Amino acid sequence: AETIEQVISYFHQTNKSPFDTLLQGMTGFSDEHLYVLLGRRASTAHQYAKAADAFAKVPTTTWTKDPWQGNFRYNPFVLTTNNKNVRYTGTPLDFAQTMTAMAKRLADNPSDFEAAYTLGCGAYNMSYQGNAWILCKRARSSAEVNTYEEKNFEIDYYQANKAKGYFEIALKSPDKELAAKACFGAAACEEAQFFIYASTQGGEEDYEAMERRIKQEKIRNYSHYFTLLRSEFAKTQYQKQALRECADYHLFASRK
Prior knowledge:
The chain is mostly helical. The protein has helices at about 1-10, 20-25, 30-45, 50-55, 70, 90-110, 115-125, 155-160, 160-170, 175-200, 205-220, 225-230, 235-245, 245-255.
C-alpha cells in the first residue's frame, strides 16, 4: 500500500515538470484506478481504515458497474452452512467502514465475540474462497491453484489465517450458538488451507497413492474444527443445521 500511496502523491504534485505530465499521461491511470488499487492493497493487508479512506475517494458510480456489479453482490458478513450466498446491497466502502468499526470494537474490548465473528466472516470472504475476493484481486480463476503456477500460495489471500484467528477469538464466546458458528467458520478456513495443500501436490508420486495420502492427511491435519464442532457443540442448533445442510460436515460427522 505504501508504494501506491507514493504513486498517488506523485500524481497529485502541484509543480509538475513537462516530463512528469507526459509520463503520467502515458500511464492512463486515473484517481479512480489508483484509489481502487490502494483500497485493494490495504484490504489484502487487513488495514481496514486505510481501505475505507481509499474507497471513499472512488466515485460511487464505479461500484454499480462491472466488474464490481457482477462480483460484489453477496453479503461478505455472512457464512452459510449450505453454501448459498445472501444478497448484499452495500459497497466496498460500506464493507471497509464496517470492518473498521468491528476492528475498533474488538481492540477496545477483546471479549467482543460478535465483533470477532463479523471480522472473521469479512476476512474469510475477502480470501480466494470467499464471495468478496474482488476486494483484494482484479480477477480470480478456479484453476489458478495448481502445481505449475509460479505463485505464492502461502499468503493470507489463499490461506485465510487472519479470518481463522478472528474465528478462534469468537470460539471463546460463552454463547454456545455463536461459538458453534465461529467453529464452523474456522473449519471453512481450514478447508481453504487443505484445498491449497491438495491442489499443489504432485511430482513423481503414484497418483492413487497420492490420493490416499492426501485423504489421510485431511483427516489428520485439516479436520480439527469439524472434530470440535461435533464434540463440543453437538447440542447446539447451529451444529444440527450444519449437519443437515453442509455435505462435507455431514460426511465427516457420519464417520465413527
